[in-house]
Model the fold of this input.
Amino acid sequence: MDTSNANNTLHSVIESNYQYGFVTDIEMDVLPRGLSVETVIAISEKKNEPEWLLKWRLTAYRHFLRLLETQGMPEWQNFDLPAIDFQAISYYAAPKGKPVLNSLDDVEPELIATFEKLGISLTEQKMLSGVAVDAVFDSVSVATTFRKELNKLGIIFCSFSEAVKEHGDMVKKYLGSVVPATDNIFAALNAAVSSDGSFAYIPKGVHCPMELSTYFRINAGNSGQFERTLVIADEGSYVSYLEGCTAPQRDENQLHAAVVELIALKDAEIKYSTVQNWYPGDKDGKGGIYNFVTKRGICKGDGAKISWTQVETGSAITWKYPSVILKGDGSSAEFYSIAITKNKQVADTGTKMIHLGKNTKSRIISKGISAGEGQNSYRGLVHAGTNAINARNFTQCDSLLIGGTCGAHTFPYIEAKNKSVQIEHEATTTRIGEDQIFYLNQRGINTEKAVALIVNGYAKEVLNNLPMEFAVEAQKLLAISLEGSVG
Amino acid sequence: MLQIRGLHAAVNDKEILKGLDLVVKPGEVHAIMGPNGSGKSTTASVLAGNPGYIVTKGDIRFYDKDIVALKPEERAGEGIFMAFQYPVEIPGVSNINFLRTAIGETRAYKGLPPIETREFVRMFREKQHLLQFSKELAERSLNEGFSGGEKKRNEILQLAMLEPRLAILDETDSGLDIDALRIVSNGVNKLRSSANAFVLITHYQRLLEHIEPDFVHVLYKGRIVRSGTKELASELEIKGYDWLNDLPAALTDQN
Ligand SMILES: Nc1ncnc2c1ncn2[C@@H]1O[C@H](COP(=O)(O)OP(=O)(O)O)[C@@H](O)[C@H]1O
Ligand SMILES: [Mg+2]
Done:
């Protein structure tokens, strides 16, 4: 110990320990920067899309323009939204190569190597058993594994583009049914320019035997990623879905505006987990991903269940509210979240639980962790409609502060339209104290490990909800993201 | 094992220790007594390496190694343990998990492999029994919602598990009822060996009736002003500490 360092002030330090900041050098098919009707048409043409989809995109684009003109960018969030130059972004970037991929042999070796480097093996033999992956690289899906095995059970797991071609009716029926293109400005933009994403359908009564997962990688510079995920669980089925993401380290900000829609029919269950680790920017807040995502599920049938679990460690700004519409009677929903902000990162995240059906239940567990100059806001809405008799919600919203320069904020909103509703809300704020760190130090545990011990203890309830294989990974990720945030 | 020479230490720019000398050999038990505010806890904190306390002069050697520049966790690895006067609560971290981590880390410092689960469990049962520490408390979050006495007992449980070479107990007796005091003292007596040493900080003689010290020191205004054997403790019990005010300034204010 340096004895001249009087106070063991827990202060934010320098490096960001981002391990995925490399760039893959690969030949790309890139649309010139800029956003216009032509851009939208060009993307649709590249994908050989049916007429209805192009029309849907164009309507969305007009709505985007209208919103931008009449309302401008949103202002309700608890941070200053930086100006985004939509004309400076390229809306399509895809690795050149064979357009239709029937086997992994067709995938460029550089891409396979890139995903290997990210810890995602696309070679099935080498993969974590029990996890099927759809790998999305910039604007397109480059590989989906274990399709044959899944097909035998009638499960469809493929890229969004492929779903449009092969399962057009289903896509047409559900696309935009939970997150309409008019929902918000980023959802409108996504609908207009989204180029790929994942699609999953689990047939009636089928319990999906493996984790389905999408791994998103932004690689190209000056581009954005606008993917679209659609998961449909038919009556009585079950699926657990996982999403991971990383991006190279760049000085410029990059926009990621995704939309995820989940549809759970009668007695179906969807568990959707996210480990978000986009490049967060450097210690001074230079660079990093703007992660503006709309995620929403609907418990469409009675007894349906949707559970969101998210571990948000990356991005310069995270803005997302994975929500559930509890339409079916007796349906239930959960939201488990850990959001870490350090250096100059901002997270404004939470959920909306919209209770419409009778005897619906929701549970919200939010754990914010702020270090350095990070700002963490929980924003949550619990709404119970007039017919939502006996709707129940429990919300636990905790904030953990590391050091004295970070911030935690909570914005809970409650709307109850009938008297039978029961809503409970608990909130705590704690700071990791120097005395706690010293106590653990005195027992032989160094400061990094001490923080990891405290943070993991704090985040346990959420981590326990992740699929096993990923819980361990997420736990490590928490420790890594906080490395150097105390000193 | 421990040699403190001419130690001066400050906290928040205020000098608290003003030339402290102390030598502790393996197998010995030392008691440090003294009125409130004399610097007893400061001494413990400085030995443990609390970064809020700055050594301004003098040195501390532990087995001939200068430890002033060592981090607290390194000192723990060297075998220095401090039972806190006010143990902190750490929500979410289970007692057991914490103990396991602490043992793993101190072993790693010494170049030893991690402890096997079986051995850990065996050892834990033994020490838990020794200190009559309830299983329920062991599984709870570290010190969270523990009573004062439970916290103190947990300190000694940790001591027993970590098997340090030098243990500094800061007012472990305060907050303990007579039964708990007996259990804790009995535990400490069982842990005593020719290879380890204890420094008991207390301002009552009560503890010393249960754990017999080899030496008793009186700390006053940051210096040891008198040393003796256990009879000194009885003397203090009768005389109190007021007489210290009459000591010649030369004895207490030397800088
Ligand atoms: N963090 C601190 N800042 C300022 N003064 C302190 C601090 N800690 C202790 N002191 C002062 O140092 C002196 C010795 O305190 P301490 O070592 O706790 O005494 P003891 O344990 O003998 O009662 C007291 O005058 C106390 O007020
Ligand atoms: Mg004290």
Chain A has one domain: 3-481. Residues 3-481 of chain A form one domain. The mean pLDDT of chain A is 85.
